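hey so i finally got around to running the thing on that chain from the lab meeting. sorry it took forever, my laptop kept dying and i had to restart like 3 times. anyway pasting the input first so we r on the same page abt which one it is
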Amino acid sequence: MLKFIHAGDVHLGTPFAGLLTKLRPDFQTAVQRATNEALQTLVARAIAEEVDCVLFPGDLYNSGENSALIQAELQVAFSKLAAAGIVVAVSFGNHDFQAGQRAHLDWPEQVLVFDQAVEQKAFQTRRGQRVVLTGFSYGSQAEKSSPLANFPVRDTTADYQIGLYHGALGQPGDRYAPFTVADLLSKNYDYWALGHIHQRTVLHQQPPILYSGNLQGLNRTETGPKGFYLVSDEGQQGLLPTFVPASPVRFEQLILQQPTSMAAIQQQVAAEHYGQKTLLSLTLMGPLGPAVQAAVDGDYLLAALQDGTPADSAYWPIQVTVKEQGSTRASTLPNLEQVGDLTAAIQSATNYDVLAGYLGDQVPAFLRSYLQSPAGQTALQKKILAMITKGEQQNEDKSH
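ok and heres what got predicted. didnt touch it at all, straight out
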């Protein structure tokens, strides 16, 4: 029997830039410690379950640059796992590709680190089974050539063979080690531990080809429980994953219909069940009550809701969006041909509530925060205006 943990995209050291300034002090502390606490939850469960190994397929760190505190915390975590006889396998992804090339605190011998070239690493479980792990680390922020051609087919001497792969479904030339499910299945491995996508995703049932998502949500679009997969073959039906939640802080979205007053909003929000600290993004579907509309018009709705949130609440509002009934995010994009004021059209199109719907999961938190800030909004609007102006000038030049 084999038992292991698959945990992609831990992102230790995530700065949560732009978010911390909007939080109540206890939430600030919780968010700052969130990724490390999620890792500690994983370590405790790994030891309790007596797993054979823990797999980190890329983006263990949020970047290649890591503070002494982060390095020390990770060293302690790895030392606890090693003391319990648990092997750790680490590959580096597009966020932490430089981490493997930089000095860090010494890790125990039981920590297996994959190089930039595809490697196979074998170990024996406490039950005497031979497990072969195959993986690679990113050498740069983009890995446009798929390394799968260098992944050998299943080792016939292995009791289990597992692939660690940080990448995305796609075509040759895509940025993040593009692959197809057929590519992976052709290797005849028993399990593929995928990283890069921050949403739990099953690409194939048996053998399992899975994204575990990340341990802790990093922004308001990464909603719901986050954690890792505990995988075993106890039932003799192949390796089967069980999701284990680990994130100490959750992001959630809540839609409120036609709120009549600020008190009504607070009552509806408080009526929800919050089993842990929860950062809320609210969507108010109009029409709105007079007081709520006045807060919207005065641009103080979020501040008012935060001021009215009880000091001991398990939730905290971080964003409020107002929509008319039946409207959609896509419908807020203006048709430039029908808008006389180009500046106003650009401002409407670059509103962060519009942009957020088009930002993929892999857009880093600092960039989201920048695009949400006045400086980021202004810079983006100037860039778009310059591109449009340049295009118009080129068209005018061609006509002469």
